[in-house]
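User: I've been trying to design a sequence by hand for this structure and keep getting stuck. Would you show me what you'd pick, starting by listing the structure so we're on the same page?

Assistant: Good idea, let's start from the same input. This is the structure you sent:
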């Protein structure tokens, strides 16, 4: 996972440049997640762990909406920036640098665990995904809710795209262009991505390139791993229905038998 950590450590200062308005996006995404949480758990208040918090895109929005949020991320730089960004907006957001397979939290202390932005896909084996789902379950209370967002990998494994369309964002310093190149492995499931950002500079452009590997987990694969980890009532929510930019999966920890 060191290459994944390096990827996000390097991206942390520039992550917000992928959004036309990062603050507006944090609020918009939080509104969608809030609706899904309330639908499954009721009004709350709820304690949330964002276990792949990055620079705080979902965590800050949820904290601003009244949730009690703790963040963790494999990238120490991203986690530190999340806390700083939250503080700059008058929001308390404690964070920790942590691997989602080994979360530094006591059992059964969260009502909700969020793992967004395709983060789970950086785990490249069944064993690693199972370890992460198991530790998320460990820190959730009985009946607690897991919220995952992933790319639509069923479709992507069929089409095997080699790139993503360029995103052009207007910033105070000029236009920023972001795109990815994808290099599929022979197994047809994993791919290396090259993430490029072209950022305005005095003499033209600064090009930043970062490389990571992802596993294009299909819904049947993930659903099976969730069942084996002790989750039930798996539901998939399409972007067309939620307004979220990726498919969202929600499921709950099986309640302890009495």
């Amino acid at each position: 996972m060191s290459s994944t950590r390096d990827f996000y450590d390097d991206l942390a200062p520039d992550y917000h440049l992928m959004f036309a308005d990062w603050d507006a996006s944090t609020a918009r995404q939080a509104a969608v997640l809030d609706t899904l949480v309330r639908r499954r758990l009721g009004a709350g208040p709820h304690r949330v762990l964002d276990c792949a918090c990055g620079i705080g895109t979902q965590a800050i929005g949820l904290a601003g909406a009244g949730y009690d949020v703790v963040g963790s991320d494999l990238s120490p730089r991203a986690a530190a920036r999340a806390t700083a960004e939250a503080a700059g907006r008058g929001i308390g957001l404690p964070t920790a640098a942590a691997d989602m397979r080994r979360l530094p939290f006591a059992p059964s202390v969260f009502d909700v665990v969020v793992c967004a932005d395709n983060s789970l896909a950086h785990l490249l084996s069944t064993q690693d995904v199972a370890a992460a789902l198991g530790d998320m379950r460990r820190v959730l209370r009985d009946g607690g809710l897991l919220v995952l967002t992933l790319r639509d990998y069923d479709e992507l494994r069929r089409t095997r795209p080699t790139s993503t369309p360029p995103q052009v964002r207007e910033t105070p310093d000029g236009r920023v262009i972001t795109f990815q190149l994808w290099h599929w492995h022979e197994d047809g499931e994993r791919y290396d991505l090259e993430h490029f950002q072209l950022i305005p500079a005095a003499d033209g452009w600064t090009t930043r390139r970062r490389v990571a590997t992802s596993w294009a987990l299909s819904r049947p694969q993930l659903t099976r791993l969730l069942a084996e980890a002790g989750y039930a009532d798996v539901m998939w929510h399409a972007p067309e229905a939620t307004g979220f930019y990726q498919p969202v999966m929600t499921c709950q920890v099986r309640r302890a038998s009495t």
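That's my pick for every position. To get oriented when you compare it with your attempt: The helical segments are 2-11, 22-41, 57-64, 76-88, 126-139, 153-159, 219-229, 239-242. The two ends are 39 Å apart (CA to CA).
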